[in-house]
Amino acid sequence: MPTHTVHAIAMHGEPKYHHGFSHFDYVNPKAPKGGDIALSAFGTFDSLNSFISKGSPAQGLALTYDTLLKSSEDEAFTEYGLVAKSMTLPKDRSWVIFHLRPEAKWHDGTPITPQDIVFTMATLKKEGAPFYKQYYQDVIKVAKVGPHAVKFSFKDGKNKELPLIVGQMPILSYHYYQKHPFNQTNLTPALSSGPYKITDVKPGKSITYARVKNYWGQNLAVNKGWYNFNKIRYKYYRDPTVSLEAFKGQAYDFREENNSKLWATAYKNIKEKNGLKVVKETILHELPRGMQGFAFNLRNPLFKDGNVRKALTLLFDFEWSNRSLFYGQYKRTTSYFENSELASRGIPKGEELALLMQYKDVLPETLFTQPFTLDKTNGSGNMRALQRRAIMLLKKAHWVLKDGKLINTKTNQPFRFEILLVSPAFKRVVLPYVHNLAKLGIKARVKVVNVPQYIELLRNFQYDMIVVSIGQSLSPGNEQRNYWSSAAANRKGSRNFMGIKNKTVDALVDQVVYAKDRKQLIIATKALDRVLLHHYYLIPHWHINYFRVAYWDMFAKPSVRPKYGLGFFTWWVS
After folding, report:
1. What is this structure's pTM?
2. Tens digits of residue pLDDT in 506-517
3. Homologous superfamily of the 3-218+548-573 domain (CATH)
4. For the CA atoms of 478, 484, 489, 492, what is the dihedral angle to 10 degrees?
5. For a Cys staple, 283 with which of 196, 302, 364, 547, CB 3.0–4.6 Å?
6. Computed from CA positions of residues 245, 250, 251, 252, in that sequence, does the dihedral angle turn out positive or negative?
7. Span 115-125, pLDDT tens digits
8. Four-residue CA torsion sign, 258, 334, 459, 197
């Protein structure tokens, strides 16, 4: 089969930037280097190893690792050479050879070699977090094929995404890990090769990264205008209120706000300090918003019946929450791929309908006849109509209201469950929902735990209901297996938080992964989205299509914004 050698790989279509381009459009290639900044992180950390399912890794570790390729933030899914100068691959993408840059170096000055690449893949699949084994499951062989070349062979040519997936792989040092154990939490920085290195660690309190002044890749086109700060320090806060007050006191410099109440009320009249003022800004983007929601753990028999899940969905009053808690800032989310062309709308038609008809016998009839919609209220708090419908659905699942409690007519057990949170601030959203549940005799208890405990509970699926946030890209692929597949449901540490085991979902995930072109990808993704929605695996929350950021006016930023990212590390200290 004919092969071709390229400087970039696009998932579909052609790369935007031609061979020999000088820099991405959304950077300032002449941005000055310098200045120290402080950022915030929530909770604590006890490890500098983010590749395993142990401990709580520190924020910002990705800044220290290079990858074979680097994504652009103004294309749906295209990667350009970083450690790899070029790539050779056949049309069916059943393998790819990465030609490494001879000048690529570790921070100790030794070269990055094919041996490092081979070692990284083997180690992540064998000893890394369970996610890696599934994510790279179609990589069947990695071999050195020259002094600066390494070849990845794939299971077949169906998964066109694999060359890009392995291109994103963080590179580990073979020689370093011959002397140091990999599968352990530790607070000793590992040898790395990225634009920053760790210079100070105060366990659980802060971590500081310094820009590598002789960083081997600083003049590459993909890095021009990036990584301009001399030092980046992440300060940890265990309480959101303390964190906000620390920002107001100029303890750190930049903050992305996720709380609508705080955005509306907490940034007024902040006093000028050291000649600087706080800038409050909304920055539009075109990123898919993914899905946030109250996720049911289907491993709990309480939530096995779809009628129960739909009933509990009816009892979340978004309109009241948006008006009373969120200052009207949000829109209700009705797709797992919200804010993108991948989102399902209306009823299935054409090729999407033909795809779904293959599974008609096991899919809800309403999927073919009714658009997925979420019932609305008038925002007054009066939910009587929805409560009546919820009662009817619960009755179908053998639950009846008796003496103020919802009781199962088969087991005589009351309807009780726990909502697990890591952020105390989210209680203001959850408690009104708990109140609505109580009106139907459902006892829901809210439990807030610290970050390490929360991570451990999630890894072992020890919860009834949690708040999940599932991000999506414009080019979904292998990661969908980790979100929805039956294989991931029982694999500790996976992101199949709901415990979904559905053969139709498995088949549609494969359709997404193996899509031959953009059109087929969109069709398969819409079908997957529709099936997930109609099974009510979670209670959808809300979204916005802009970043809410506040910062002390010490920064300057490029005139062009990336469509699919914030681009903070293209900013500089002015």
Report:
1. 0.78
2. 999 999 998 888
3. Periplasmic binding protein-like II (3.40.190.10)
4. 50
5. 547
6. positive
7. 999 999 999 99
8. negative
